[in-house]
From TrEMBL, chain A:
Source organism superkingdom: Eukaryota
Record-stated family: Belongs to the SKP1 family.
UniProt signal peptide: none
Known role: Probable essential component of SCF (SKP1-CUL1-F-box protein) E3 ubiquitin-protein ligase complexes, which mediate the ubiquitination and subsequent proteasomal degradation of target proteins. Regulates cell proliferation during embryonic and larval development.
Feature: compositional bias, Basic and acidic residues: 165-177
Protein name (database record): Skp1-related protein
Residue ranges occupied by any SKP1 component dimerisation domain in the UniProt entry: 127-170
Keywords attached to this entry: Ubl conjugation pathway
Source species: Caenorhabditis nigoni
Lineage of origin: Eukaryota, Metazoa, Ecdysozoa, Nematoda, Chromadorea
Chain residue ranges for the region called Disordered: 1-25, 160-188
Pathway: Protein modification; protein ubiquitination
Limits of the SKP1 component POZ domain: 38-96
Automatic annotation (TrEMBL), chain B:
Biological process according to GO: polysaccharide biosynthetic process
Family annotation (Pfam families): F-box, FTH, SGNH
Protein name: DUF38 domain-containing protein
Gene Ontology CC, one term: membrane
Originating species: Caenorhabditis nigoni
Coiled-coil boundaries: none
């Protein structure tokens, strides 16, 4: 129900191709909207699929866009990486109008991707997908020791945190002193 | 996590802030030429404070100390490693404790070229370095030789490609020793190095950038390296990331890559190495804040914590102050939790799911600074021949503890942590168990334990009531204390009360006044109640209790109460501890003709249990589908509201015999 193509900018999105509709097309034509992430790749998504996102659903519920208006005004999500937005769009399409199953095994196993997905899904307010992500994130540290959890989730110890903070302050102080010295030198 | 600020600025020796690549705004073409010459001159400068820890065995291993926390970084490769090391160290020295560099002319960490002798042996050395350091981050920064060699038989069949197979083998040796991330610099086209020095001068003469590019580029097959890297990335399990300069070189792409920026500043030196102008892009590529646990939304983190088993929660709680806070505000779903003390140790146990019981035994005496902790797991029900009695057991020893504390301090402290989690309004504890009180065996110790536990549970720090469906309480007779404990529990959740003090007689007046007693639905009392009246437990739909004796009129009152409740599954069971139920006098109270209709037990065990019953009377209920089955034995009377058609299965003959 959706497709993706390379766009150029949010103001002039590329023309997305329409994916083949299922054989049994709905009687009432479904409305579509357009979204793009940081990479400006525009995704065409049905209103039904977008209902998963409380944020987007709230945005479009009173818009009453025509197809042309929707195409000309894709929703820009500049804070979401293109591949992550693609994952989200795919998930919304896959679960459009269906009850969500208890497990979702298609989530990324790679920590950074999963955490990026969490941030995006949280922003877009997709409750069910966030729950799946939550289970997967929890599974990463199940049965692990504190040292292992620190390593997996990259949690600094309090001592490391304090040392880093102290060092950052020291560094900022030095830089401020350098700037002052530079300004004084320029004044001469 | 390494964060590259990407602003390329450091304090220069005079205290002035300058860019790492020495580029300034609005540089004239002469200044550009001067800068390119400067790059060429300082082509392979190395930071001076390199420490060689193994000069005999590994003469090329070169260490630099950072002033950050315990993060370790390794840089591997050939001359490109030298080109990058200053920038990486300058950028990250406040985040990293130790940098180790290993750079060998012409040799690459992933595959060996024949162009430089010894590169095949160097593969071992690269691998040994990673094994020795076990870095959090490793960087492969190499000018390509082997990795972009022609494919075996000139066919891109990576499964039969000598170079790719060597890269794969090396990667498999590297990955177990890299804790977080391996960054690989992707291959980019080589520059015709002798013409690099002419870039600025040609531009000054008016030669077009396209014409200059022609003098700098020749086809060199760098694409094969990129193909191999791309394939290798799929075998990295998410641990590898590619750093790529190619987009920079092809930004103005027409036909050829451009090896210099719009002002004429070269990215390469006259030796074909990378200069600071291009490595600045490395900083930018690395500057994206890595998504980490700390950056996730707090409501998401609490949801994750709620999905963890109790042991994992405790582990996370130890990671940092922030995580301790997250755990403490997250709901804790336990099936059961128990605390106890014995003569030589104290005991805390819990079950996440009701199937497996985890327990911790604390062995510590006053005056000693060591403690033995025994951690074990066992099935909640041991079925000989079907499961193991113990799933695992392990002991650890903690040293340098406060000699003024004993095992009670530790078990109570850990129990307090569990209580903290129970403070949360969202907590749901299905089975909260306080049990195994042994006042006779170790009176002094158990009295102390009871007093301290009570103080802790009822202290002013207890802000919210504990949420539990069942409270199993084994406590010595002291109605005020028991009432106090009851009040700790949220009456909205508390459905079942279990009291155990087999040889004692309790005064119930204070207890039955509590909201928790009034609102509970099930009662299990293995204790003699001195002053309990029928009215006090009329509201329970399931009753199992020990009684000294029960007058026939009171039993009849109970039967009538259960008939009027008209609730399927409701039941009562009385164990007579002193008197005995008088069958004839009981039957005389009934408003129906006595009619002994025993159940037909479907199983052998039910059949055996049923044999102790002297009389089975069935009573009609307001709901014609239900019947109350009252059974009278020598020392017991019980009743169950069953479906008429299902009496043989539903009548609770096991009650009082099997727990």
């Amino acid at each position: 129900m959706s497709s993706t193509e390379q766009g150029t900018s949010s103001a002039a999105p590329a023309e997305p191709t329409t994916a083949p509709e299922s054989a049994a097309a709905p009687e009432v034509p479904e409305s579509f909207y357009y979204v793009h992430g940081k990479d400006k790749v525009v995704h065409k998504v049905s209103a039904g699929a977008l209902q998963h996102s409380a944020l987007i659903h709230g945005m479009i519920s009173n818009l009453g866009y025509t197809e042309e208006q929707a195409k000309a005004n894709p929703f820009p999500f500049e804070n979401i990486d293109g591949d992550i937005l693609q994952m989200v769009v795919d998930w919304c399409n896959q679960h459009k109008g269906k009850p969500t199953p208890p497990e979702d095994t298609n989530l990324p196993k790679q920590k950074e991707k999963l955490f990026d997905l969490v941030l995006a899904v949280n922003y877009l307010e997709i409750k069910e997908l966030l729950t799946y992500c939550c289970k997967q994130v929890a599974m990463m540290v199940k049965g692990k020791s504190p040292e292992e959890i620190r390593e997996i989730w990259m949690i600094p110890t309090d001592a490391e945190d304090e040392a880093a903070e102290k060092e950052a302050k020291k560094r900022a102080g030095k830089e401020a002193a350098g700037e002052t010295a530079a300004a004084a030198g320029d004044a001469k | 996590m390494l964060v590259f600020s990407g602003n390329s600025e450091v304090l220069n020796p005079r205290g002035r802030i300058s860019r790492l690549d020495f580029v300034r705004n609005n540089m004239s073409i002469d200044e550009v030429i001067e800068l390119n010459d400067f790059y060429n001159k300082h082509n392979l400068d190395i930071l001076g404070d390199c420490i060689k820890r193994n000069p005999m065995t590994h003469p090329k291993w070169c260490e630099y100390e950072g002033d950050g926390p315990a993060i370790k970084v390794v840089l591997l490769g050939n001359s490109y490693t030298w080109n990058h090391h200053k920038m990486i160290i300058q950028e990250c020295r406040h985040q990293v404790k130790n940098f180790t560099m290993d750079s060998e002319e012409g040799c690459e960490p992933l595959a060996a070229t024949n162009l430089f002798p010894g590169c095949d042996k160097k593969l071992e050395d690269f691998s040994a370095l990673l094994k020795a350091i076990r870095p959090h981050y490793a960087f492969i920064l190499s000018r390509f030789y082997a990795v972009a060699e022609p494919f075996t038989n000139n066919v891109m069949d990576l499964e039969n490609d000598r170079v790719f197979l060597q890269m794969r083998a090396q990667l498999r040796r590297f990955l177990p020793n890299i804790r977080q991330k391996l960054y690989i610099l992707d291959t980019i086209p080589r520059v015709i190095d002798q013409n690099v020095q002419n870039i600025g001068r040609d531009l000054k003469k008016g030669v077009s950038p396209e014409e200059i590019s022609k003098t700098l580029y020749t086809s060199d097959g760098y694409e094969r390296g990129r193909l191999r890297h791309a394939a290798l990335l799929k075998e990295c399990f998410g641990k590898c990331e590619i750093i790529d300069y190619l987009p920079l070189l092809t930004k103005n792409f027409t036909v050829l890559p451009q090896f210099f920026d719009d002002s004429g500043i070269s990215y390469f030196t006259s030796l074909g190495h990378l200069n600071r102008k291009i490595t600045k892009k490395f900083q930018i590529a690395m500057s994206k804040l890595e998504p980490i646990w700390q950056n996730l939304p707090i409501h998401f983190k609490t949801s994750c914590v709620e999905k963890l088993d109790y042991k994992s929660r405790c582990s996370l709680r130890k990671c940092s102050k922030l995580d301790m806070h997250i755990v403490d505000i997250s709901s804790n779903h336990l099936n059961s939790l128990a605390i106890n003390t014995y003569e030589n140790y104290s005991f805390l146990s819990w079950s996440n799911d009701g199937d497996t019981i985890f327990s911790v035994k604390y062995f510590k005496n006053l005056g000693e600074s060591d403690m033995k902790i025994e951690f074990s797991a066992s099935p909640s029900i041991y079925l000989p021949g079907k499961n193991q009695k113990s799933i695992f057991k392990k002991s650890i020893f903690l040293e340098n503890l406060d000699p003024d504390s004993d095992d009670l301090d530790f078990v109570l402290s850990d129990f307090k942590i569990a209580q903290k989690k129970l403070n949360c309004k969202k907590s749901i504890i299905n089975d909260f168990i306080l049990k195994e009180y042994h006042p006779i065996a170790h009176p002094d110790r158990t009295m102390e334990f009871r007093e301290r536990l009570l103080n802790q549970m009822t202290s002013s720090g207890q802000k919210n009531q504990l949420k539990s469906e069942i409270l199993h309480l084994k406590w010595h007779k002291n109605p005020e204390e028991i009432a106090e404990i009851l009040k700790i529990f949220d009456s909205k959740n508390l459905k079942k009360l279990e009291f155990s003090d087999r040889n004692a007689t309790w005064q119930m007046a204070e207890i039955v006044k509590t909201e928790q007693w009034i609102k509970a639905e099930q009662l299990w009392m293995e204790v003699m109640a001195e002053d309990l009246k029928i009215e006090d437990f009329r509201h329970f739909s399931e009753i199992q209790m020990h009684i000294r004796d029960l007058e026939e009129k009171d039993l009849w009152s109970v039967i009538q109460n259960f008939r009027s409740k008209n609730r399927h599954g409701a039941s009562f069971h009385f164990t007579y501890r002193q008197g005995e139920p008088d069958l004839q006098r009981i039957l005389a109270t009934f408003d129906v003709v006595p009619d002994d209709k025993p159940i037909r037990a479907a199983t052998r065990i039910r059949s055996i249990l049923e044999r102790r019953i002297n009389h089975t009377q069935r009573f009609q209920m307001p709901n014609p589908d239900l019947t109350l089955v009252v059974m009278i034995a020598d020392k017991e009377v019980w009743g169950t509201v069953c479906h008429v058609a299902n009496v043989d299965v539903e009548a609770k003959v096991e009650t009082g015999m099997l727990r």
